[in-house]
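Structure (tokenized):
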């Protein structure tokens, strides 16, 4: 019987530390699950990419590495009295390579 992988969503901001996000990626991967990094804007996307690179460095000693599958994600965010505003984010699906 195979374990169903849980997908954990990690939101990345421009002030997110790549080392901290990389640590979170490693924790999820070591549990046998996977995660999505979600970023809106160029600053957060930059931090997310750096975190994936650092996570590879952290996981190298255990013989694992991660890759990502980027995609667009449409979010409906609250926009004051007018209801919601549609925003396009980038989603990085983390894939484990052993």
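Design, position by position:
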């Amino acid at each position: 019987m195979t374990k169903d992988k849980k997908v954990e969503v990690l939101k990345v901001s421009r002030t997110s530390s790549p080392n901290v996000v990389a640590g979170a990626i490693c924790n999820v991967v070591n549990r046998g699950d996977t995660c999505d990094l979600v970023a809106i804007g160029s600053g957060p996307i930059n931090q997310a990419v750096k975190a994936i690179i650092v996570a590879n460095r952290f996981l190298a000693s255990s013989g694992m590495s991660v890759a990502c599958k980027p995609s667009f994600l449409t979010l409906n965010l609250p926009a004051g009295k007018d209801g919601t505003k549609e925003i396009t984010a980038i989603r990085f699906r983390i894939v484990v390579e052993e």
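Reviewer-requested clarification: Helices lie at 18-30, 42-59. The two ends are 20 Å apart (CA to CA).
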